[in-house]
Amino acid sequence: MAVPWDVAVAGGGPAGAFAARELAQAGFSVVLIDPGTTRPRLEGLGERVAGLLAAKGLDAALAAAGPRLPRTVRWAGLTGSENGERLVRRDAFDAALRAAAQAAGACLLTARVSRIDDADVARGVALRLSDGTALRARLMLDARGRHAHSHARALRRARGPATLAVAGRVAGLPVEPGIRVAATPQGWLWDACDPGFGRWIQICIDAGDLSGDLSGELPGSGPAALAARLAGFLAQPCLDGRYAGAVADGQPVARHCALTLSAPDLAPPLVPVGDAAAAIDPLSGHGLFWALSSALAAAPMVRTLLDDPGQGAGRAARFHRDRVVGTFWRQARIGRDFYRLERGLAEYPFWAARAAWPDDRPAHAAPTETRLERRVVVDGDRLAERDVLVTPRDPDGVAFVAGLPVADLLARLRDGAGSVPDPAAGWLASRGLARPPPATRPLS
Questions:
Q1: Average pLDDT of the chain to the nearest whole number
Q2: Contact indicator for 197, 89 with CB cutoff of 8 Å
Q3: How many C-beta atoms lie closer than 10 Å to residue 153's C-beta?
């Protein structure tokens, strides 16, 4: 039998390709499986993502994004262009990340994962690819996006109001570089123009506005129907005729884009990353950052799972759940707050449903007291249990200050066993810590 790969990565979008590069650089044997069929389209890329790409030396991927462009917003009665973002060609961006993974030592197979024949903690995974190839790996990173879920996983997932994104390149309008976001009674639109690509418009509407199979096999959901739905949206009176004369340049596409918690629980040897774990609502502009940050977390998870399959699996499961579930509910409530800002449209069904979901809890609930909690964190290149300091200013918790475990620093304060070095002393003083806070029981 052939020696199995350490890690098979299914899906070569941003999450999968970036994870494959990180793992290959860490010394793992990695096979990246992707059909290479990313559709040409534009997407927003924020400065946090640009900074991460630059820090990682991914110049070719960053080159797929142009300069920062102004973003004009018409939302909640406000208009302005104070903020901005870059526009990235997703086909070129994804290809650059896959090439970077290959340069780091990953093997790229141009295919899809057709089925998983076996998945067991001890035996690993056995995969069958669309070209007939069979391979084995100790772990599989599932980065196939929203469609990566088994029936059992789908039954457990939580999801926001069903939302569709209908998007496509549009002709017949001026080529004016920039990004425009507008709220309308039917939903909201993202209008992006890159002179080298053209004008790309995406509308987000309620799923009930477009019935039928999105594959186009049923009446009312084929390319002509999507083009008509896009045209109807752009003809709304509130848009003041700015899109008069717009015609679809090619076939529009539709996809489900509701915020979805697909895999709250880790089930090794399968490790979901990116949208396969939690899919982000495009309203947040957080999608690419979540994809890359999720991939970054994969390397210590993989090393922990492979080095210590027993206790490591428990640590990885806690770490995964804390990150994925926490991100899902935080994004749900941030999105709700953005929808609630648009009070002038609150009576329309699209807005009413999203302003009411998921609840009335604050998006960023600050703790009222300082305390220590036992959590799983990244420590070097692995996962470890550490005491984490939670304060009103640090609700997500801090495990290290100036590279030193925060629990050790607090122990020095308590025991007088030595001075606390700067800048750790200044940081602790800024939190009002003259003595250690009380500890809590480990999180379950």
A1: 90
A2: yes
A3: 18
pLDDT, residue 80, reads 64
Q: For residue 382, which amino acid is it?
A: R
- Token pair belonging to 172: 């017949």
Whose tokens are 């029981």? That residue is: 441
CB-CB contact of 405 with 378 (8 Å):
no
Beta strands in 147-228 (DSSP E): 158-159, 163-171, 178-184, 187-194, 198-206
**What is the tens place of the pLDDT at every residue in 194-244?**
999 999 999 999 998 875 444 444 345 688 889 999 999 999 999 999 999
HSE toward the beta carbon, residue 211, CA cutoff 13 A: 1
CB atoms within 10 A of CB 69: 18
The angle formed by the CA atoms of residues 211, 217 and 223, to the nearest 5 degrees, is 75
The CA distance from 341 to 353, in Å, is 14
Report residue 210 CA to chain centroid gap: 25
What confidence tens digit (pLDDT) does each residue in 297-352 have? 999 999 999 998 888 999 999 999 999 999 999 999 999 999 999 999 999 999 99
pLDDT per position as a tens digit, 141-154: 999 998 775 434 44
Give long-range contacts, CB 8 A cutoff, 24+ apart: 350-355.
Answer: 350/185, 350/186, 350/187, 350/205, 350/206, 351/185, 353/161, 353/206, 354/160, 354/161
From CA 148, how far away is CA 127, in angstroms rounded?
A: 14
186-205 b/e (C-beta count within 10 Å ≥ 16 → b) = bbbbbbbbbeebbbbbbbbb
pLDDT number for residue 148:
77
Q: Distance from CA of residue 264 to its chain's centroid?
A: 14
DSSP run (H or E) holding 396: strand 394-398
Q: What are the Cα distances from residue 330, in Å, to 278, 333, 365?
A: 12, 5, 10
Q: What is the pTM of this model?
A: 0.91
- Average pLDDT of the residues in 116-145: 96
Q: Cβ neighbours of residue 166 under 8 Å, at least 6 residues apart?
A: 202, 203, 205, 210, 226, 229, 230, 233, 252, 253, 254
Helices and strands (DSSP H and E) totals, the chain: 11, 25
* Amino acid at site 262: S
Q: What is the 3-state secondary structure (H, E, C) of 230-285?
A: HHHHHCCHHHCCCCCCCEECCCCEEEECCCEECCCCCECCEEECHHHCEECCHHHC
* 378 SS3 class: strand
CA atoms within 13 A on the CB side of 26: 23
